[in-house]
Design brief:
The chain is of the alpha/beta class. The protein is 32% helix and 14% strand. The longest helix is centred in the C-terminal third of the chain and has 12 residues.
Length: 410
């Protein structure tokens, strides 16, 4: 028996009456704030808009789990909407002339009837972007993280029709990336990273919930704390990263790191799962493996490190260890140096030069995954001065004003 969810009726009313429509995936809502999933990028920006009485409507990506009241911004599920969207062309003859089009979709009709003039999000699907643009909305994509300074930085859009008009990035882009943006007629805007801004300025009243410090199983005084940012793709788990298979034997934590953990009982190790590993059920065995791993050791932990704001965790550490996570940029923002171990970063590797800017500034070292090298680095690493913000020409309040005045004509 099919039971209609009446929340959709309220959602349609909200959608039609909203000022701004937002979009992001579950993986970007990796924080828990007041019992709800919170994106430190999208939701952090939207908190500022709500403070000036702007009506924000949030769309979840198809297949999302954190919908309705489970999300901080009450995201509307879009599974059925995306599935039905293309079918409207079969009923094109029934539409009023203003809406008739060979490319008409349910999404474009909804956008035309909505008061919203802006769609802003992370990873906006082409079908959603095209529908919004066809209805006259301004589409703004926000970078998922840092990395635009890398010449091989992958843009999340490929053609002009589905590309946004504006792309918000957290650092100056490489000339090759600028060229690709220009070819797509996209205007890049360098803005402060909302996640870093949120950390540096403390949580607002509406976004409280700082995680407690990771519990320790002994009263041992540790001389140092090291954060290890784990990554998916090394467990033969994605065709996108087939070349990474076999680099880590167990697909989770490099065996040379394990050797160093076991040889350094005086150092506390925080093992952090990537949000994809944390949320996707197919990585449940990663969680079980980590749980067993830390249960047999008194100098490491994984749950608090994985569920808290990255900057809350790394800020109390002396160093950051990873294969090739872009979280090196966030670590640098608070003065924590990183050691990257992926062979793909070595000279001749497909990702060589990915962290060239951070390497030149002394925040990243690319090294081999050998226990002696790791142990020497861990023994000597210590925090340094926080990285100078590359986004001096727009601080966070100015970014909000920019979005209001330039993009929404508020």
């Amino acid at each position: 028996m099919l039971i209609f969810d009446f929340r959709y009726l309220r959602a349609i009313r909200r959608f039609l009456d909203g000022d701004i429509i937002t979009y992001c995936h579950d993986v970007d809502r990796y924080l828990v704030v007041n019992g709800k999933r919170f994106s430190p990028i999208i939701d952090e920006i939207m908190v500022n808009f709500k403070s000036i009485d702007m009506k924000i409507i949030s769309l979840a990506s198809p297949g999302s789990k954190f919908v309705w009241e489970r999300g901080f911004s009450n995201p509307i599920p879009t599974n059925l909407l995306f599935r039905l969207s293309g079918s409207l062309r079969y009923f094109n003859f029934l539409l009023p002339s203003i809406l008739k089009s060979n490319n008409a979709s349910l999404l474009s009709v909804l956008f035309r009837f909505s008061k919203a003039r802006i769609l802003i999000g992370i990873g906006i699907p082409p079908i959603l972007s095209r529908a919004a643009r066809s209805a006259g909305l301004t589409v703004i994509e926000i970078a998922h993280g840092y990395g635009a300074c890398n010449p091989e930085f992958k843009l999340p859009f490929e053609d002009k029709k589905s590309a946004p008009q504006f792309y918000l990035i957290f650092e100056e882009a490489h000339e090759k990336v600028k060229k690709r943006l220009a070819d797509l007629e996209i205007e890049e805007v360098i803005v402060p990273n909302p996640s870093v801004h949120r950390f540096k300025n403390g949580f607002r009243q509406s976004a409280k919930g700082k995680q407690a410090k990771a519990p320790r199983k002994t009263e041992v005084e540790f001389s140092k704390e090291i954060l290890v940012s784990l990554q998916w793709g090394y467990d033969n788990d994605s065709p996108l990263y087939y070349q990474l298979g076999g680099i880590i034997k167990n697909g989770i934590l490099h065996e040379e790191i394990i050797k160093v953990i076991d040889r350094t009982p005086n150092i506390f190790w925080k093992l952090r799962l990537h949000p994809v590993q944390l949320m996707d059920n197919k990585y449940e065995h990663h969680k079980l493996w980590l749980e067993d791993f830390v249960q047999r050791r008194s100098n490491c932990e994984w749950e608090s490190a994985s569920n808290s704001h990255f900057l809350d965790i790394v800020n109390s550490c002396d160093g950051h260890l990873t294969m090739q996570s872009s979280s090196c940029y966030e670590a640098a923002a608070v003065g924590i140096r990183s050691l990257c171990l992926c062979p793909a970063l070595q000279k001749g590797g497909r990702n060589f030069g990915r962290f060239a800017r951070l390497e030149n500034e002394g925040f990243v070292i690319v090294g081999e995954a050998k226990s002696k090298i790791l142990e020497a680095w861990v023994s000597n690493v210590k925090p340094i001065n926080a990285r100078i913000n590359q986004t001096q020409h727009l601080n966070f309040p100015e970014m909000i004003e920019f979005l209001k005045e330039k993009l929404i004509n508020f």
